[in-house]
TrEMBL record:
Domain PpiC: 268-371
Protein name as it appears in the record: Periplasmic chaperone PpiD
Membership in a protein family: Belongs to the PpiD chaperone family.
Source species: Hydrogenophaga luteola
Keywords: Cell inner membrane, Cell membrane, Chaperone, Isomerase, Membrane, Rotamase, Transmembrane, Transmembrane helix
Major localization class: membrane
Length: 631
């Protein structure tokens, strides 16, 4: 076939040109570009669409960021409609702020950008002992984010510019203490209430159902009785941890590893140092920093001439409030406890030595190394379990790396079965039944989203081919294939009859509780005997006394000028509550009044910034074109 194509290449090229050229004539290059960029618009900002593909990508990035920060986070929360909608709202917000920056000509100066970069802790950690930036490590850091240094700095500049949009409003917001106290007193007001709850479950015994009613409820609510789409699968796991379990180590290798690594295995060295610190903020004017540096040089000369006076000089001059009173003593510490320039100098000094001036983000330090605590060297027998673990892990990782490519190629090339890969790599073919599209916590590799997505892909479902080898954890790859597929279906009434009955009883019980509650409430309002009501309790927003949220809101919303006041609260499937408000009590005097006022002022400033953002949404004609999910 390929010989035929080569022999008739000219005819084939001509045929393709006949097809392609008219398309360019009719639609132009822009038409093809637009075709690739097409996609359903999910929102518009200032006349520009946000496409579904952009939303999907933003949510993937956001979900990945949250998984890295919180590995134990339930994946279902990230895949929920509410989480996706929240991502869209953030995307819209960024576009609104970017539009405001452009229209209002807001700009971030080079000086402001430089100050922001200097204040970034992740960048401060990249400084050399002389205070200069390690450019190579900086480039590596931003490359991990998929950016060049120029692109990273451009993004930071853009973020700083966008902060100006709402920062100017939020930074100038304030609330006078008198206004704050009025609002806080109202918010924390206490009320003495009596609450009678008519629980739906107490009416369940009174519900009588016929077969016809059960059948009708089933017909009207078949969406409640769906069996989800399910698959049965086979899968293989290439796992470095499992490889390690099967390894047997040579005695000579263990002893050689001990000799090479005994110092590291015995523990980390700790050092004790004292220092004199003169504060000099990174953003301070050069003239001011030079004055501080000159004073630090003078102190350095003083302690070098009389090292025994170091503690007294530190007490008199150091601006480190935590150590000055102790003569600058910082106690023992290991690597990673101090900022890197400081740490590098401490671990390069000999006992009793005094350093040159050391510049960090805090200012200028003079350091004296006062003691070294070397860890006790452990014997081979003491370290044997750890050595075996470390060596097995290293060898297992090596074997895993050597096998991973071959494993991936084999499951792809022999896609009709997992057996060739299982035989080649001596792996067990495992099985699982009843998998659904959503990850189920606790199901191991089968809870991996990428693996599930591959299994539920059309090719896997229809052709039962192997998935690609997917990294399901560090040092772990999994390939799987669908054995059988059951589409989603409505369960027959015979299977779900008891579930239908329970739902209908719960619905009728709640209805009876509401009707009985409404009848009792009317009677109580008309002057019926209230002795059956429970004892009164004092509730407030900060101390609800176990009262349900809906009941608390109803109690605090009644008119305090008409006491006693009554309210009926529908608790849904839980039943009904009757609330009697008997007294309104002033809040207790707060223990931290000024702190509360400051917190209120922050809330107020945030509310003003949010109001300004809502005006910006109107200004830039924001439209979100997908419905907000119901709570």
């Amino acid at each position: 076939m390929f010989d035929s194509i080569r022999n008739h290449k000219k005819y084939l090229m001509g045929f393709l040109l006949i097809l392609i050229i008219p398309s360019f004539v009719l639609f132009g290059v822009q038409g093809f570009t637009d075709f690739n960029q097409r996609g359903e618009a999910v929102a518009t900002v200032d006349g520009h669409d946000i496409r579904k593909s952009e939303w999907d990508e933003a949510h993937r990035n956001e979900a990945q960021r949250l998984r890295e920060q919180m590995p134990n986070l339930d994946a279902k929360l990230l895949d929920s409609d509410a989480a996706r909608y929240a991502t869209l709202e953030r995307l819209v917000r960024d576009r609104v702020l970017a539009a405001a920056v452009q229209k209002d000509h807001l700009y971030t100066s080079d000086q402001r950008l430089a100050r922001a970069l200097q204040e970034d802790p992740s960048i401060a950690a990249l400084r050399k002992p002389d205070g200069s930036l390690d450019v190579e490590r900086y480039a590596q850091m931003v490359a991990r984010q998929g950016l060049t240094p120029e692109g990273f700095e451009s993004r930071i500049r853009s973020d700083l510019s966008m902060r100006q949009v709402l920062g100017g409003v939020q930074g100038t917001g304030f609330a006078p203490p008198s206004v704050a106290q009025v609002s806080l007193n109202a918010f924390f007001e206490r009320r003495e209430v009596r609450v009678l709850t008519l629980a739906a479950k107490d009416f369940a015994a009174k519900v009588a159902l016929t077969d016809a009613e059960i059948e009708q409820f089933y017909k009207d609510n078949q969406a409640l009785f769906q069996a989800p789409e399910q698959i049965d699968v086979e899968y293989l796991v290439l796992d470095a941890a499992e490889i390690a379990k099967g390894l047997t180590l040579n005695e000579e290798d263990l002893r050689a590893y001990y000799k090479e690594n005994v110092a590291k295995l015995s523990g980390d060295e700790e050092r004790r140092a004292s220092h004199i610190l003169l504060n000099a903020a990174a953003g301070a004017p050069a003239e001011q920093r030079e004055k501080v540096k000159a004073k630090a040089r003078a102190l350095l000369e003083q302690v070098r001439k009389a090292p025994e006076t170091f503690a007294d000089v530190a007490k008199a001059n150091s601006q480190d409030t935590g150590s000055a009173a102790k003569g600058g003593d910082l106690e023992f510490f290991g690597r990673g406890a101090m900022v890197k320039p400081f740490e590098d100098v401490v671990f390069a000094l000999k006992k009793g030595e005094i350093s040159d001036l050391v510049e960090t983000e805090f200012g200028y330090h003079i350091i004296q190394l006062t003691d070294i605590k070397a860890p006790k060297q452990k014997t081979f027998e003491e370290m044997r379990p750890q050595i075996e673990t470390d060596l097995k892990k290293q060898q297992a990782q090596k074997r895993f790396a050597e096998s991973a490519d071959g494993f991936g190629n084999m499951v792809y090339e022999q896609a009709e079965s997992l057996k060739p890969a299982a035989d080649q790599f001596k792996l067990e073919i495992k099985t699982a039944k009843g998998l659904i599209r959503q990850p189920v916590p606790g199901s191991g590799v089968l809870a991996n989203e990428r693996l599930l997505a591959a299994l539920f892909a059309p090719d896997s479902l229809q052709n039962k081919r192997n998935t690609e080898a997917i990294e399901t954890a560090s040092g772990q790859m999994t390939a799987a294939r669908v054995v059988s597929h059951a589409p989603a279906r409505t369960l027959p009434l015979a299977e779900v009859r008891e579930s239908v009955r329970a739902r209908l009883i719960a619905q009728r019980s709640a209805q009876m509780a509401r009707e009985e509650g409404a009848r009792k409430l009317e009677g109580l309002k008309s002057g019926s005997d209230t002795t059956a009501l429970p004892a009164s309790v004092v509730v407030s927003r900060d101390n609800p006394q176990g009262v349900a949220g809906q009941v608390l809101r109803a109690a605090l919303s009644t008119d305090p000028k008409q006491l006693p006041s009554w309210a009926g609260v529908d608790l849904g499937e839980q039943g009904y509550a009757i609330v009697k408000v008997e007294k309104v009590l002033q809040r207790a005097t707060p223990s931290a009044q000024n702190q509360e006022v400051q917190q209120y002022a922050q809330w107020w400033a945030t509310a003003e910034a949010q109001a300004h953002y809502e005006l910006l949404k109107q200004r830039f004609k924001v439209k979100i074109l997908v419905p907000e999910p119901k709570q």
